[in-house]
């Protein structure tokens, strides 16, 4: 009798070892084992979506991270044109020293249109704030970076290197380089050289609020 109970206990133990139990509920994304195979220690057998949620691992330039925070609403556009609504879960405190990019995790609802490893584009509503901006047409780019052509009191232009930040419509945030209120060349700056005399208009660097930021 004792021998039979020992055999039964052994069979029950073997049976329990053939049952795979997930620590959380969710949808299985991938399987790396087949029925009858013996799994090795530490082997990942299944990948699943926890609680029916999936995340977009987005990258954002360093100058945009300051305007992002957990809970911010996001609109994610998939390659097929479909748009999903999500929310920022995590904004990384670190920036890659090589690429100057930081990581942002956007939580998305489970959808058949989402494919692990795929690509998407997110637009995140950042915190509204006042910022120094200039029209995109006024910002020039060359091997030395971005710059503005500022018109002085003598009606001659001078090249001022600037550091740009967020985009909002047709405006570019100017993080560094000018103080605000300067008159700038709005268009045709590529045809001018520092010291050229121009007929100045009322164009000037102005302040504007950024309602959002595209990643």
Account of the 3D structure:
A hairpin with a 2-residue loop joins strand 12 and strand 13. The strands form 4 sheets. Strands 3-6-5-4-7-16 form a 6-stranded antiparallel β-sheet. The protein is rod-shaped and about 110 Å long. The protein has 2 helices and 16 strands. It has helices spanning 2-17, 62-65; strands at 26-31, 46-50, 53-61, 73-77, 83-95, 101-109, 121-124, 130-135, 140-142, 145-151, 157-161, 163-168, 171-176, 183-184, 206-209, 213-214. Mean pLDDT is 79; it is low at 203-215. With 215 residues, the protein is mainly β.
Radius of gyration (CA) equals: 28 Å
The pLDDT mean sits at 79
Shape: rod-shaped
The number of strands is: 16
Strand content: 35-45%
Distance between the termini: 70 Å
Helix content: under 10%
Helix-strand sequence? HEEEHEEEEEEEEEEEEE
Number of helices: 2
Unreliable runs, pLDDT <50, ≥5 residues? 203-215
Biggest sheet features: 6 strands, antiparallel
Q: What class, by secondary structure content?
A: mainly beta
Walk across the major sheet and give the strand order. 3-6-5-4-7-16
């Amino acid at each position: 009798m004792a021998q039979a109970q020992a055999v039964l206990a052994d069979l029950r133990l073997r049976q329990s070892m053939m049952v795979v139990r997930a620590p959380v509920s969710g949808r299985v994304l991938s399987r790396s084992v087949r029925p009858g195979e013996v799994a090795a220690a530490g082997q990942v057998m299944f990948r699943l979506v926890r609680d029916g949620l999936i995340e977009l691992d987005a990258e954002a330039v360093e100058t945009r991270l300051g305007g992002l925070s957990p809970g911010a609403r996001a609109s994610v556009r998939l390659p097929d044109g479909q748009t999903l609504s999500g929310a920022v879960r995590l904004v990384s405190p670190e920036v890659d020293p090589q690429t100057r990019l930081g990581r942002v995790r956007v939580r998305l609802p489970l959808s058949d249109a989402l494919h692990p490893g795929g690509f998407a584009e997110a637009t995140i509503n950042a915190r509204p704030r006042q910022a120094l901006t200039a029209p995109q047409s006024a910002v020039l780019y060359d091997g030395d970076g971005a710059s503005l052509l500022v018109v002085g009191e003598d009606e001659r232009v001078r090249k001022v290197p600037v550091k740009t930040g967020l985009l909002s419509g047709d405006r570019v945030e100017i993080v560094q380089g000018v103080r605000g209120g300067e008159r700038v060349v709005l268009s045709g700056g590529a045809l001018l050289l520092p010291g050229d005399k121009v007929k100045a208009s009322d164009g000037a660097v102005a302040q504007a609020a950024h309602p959002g930021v595209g990643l």
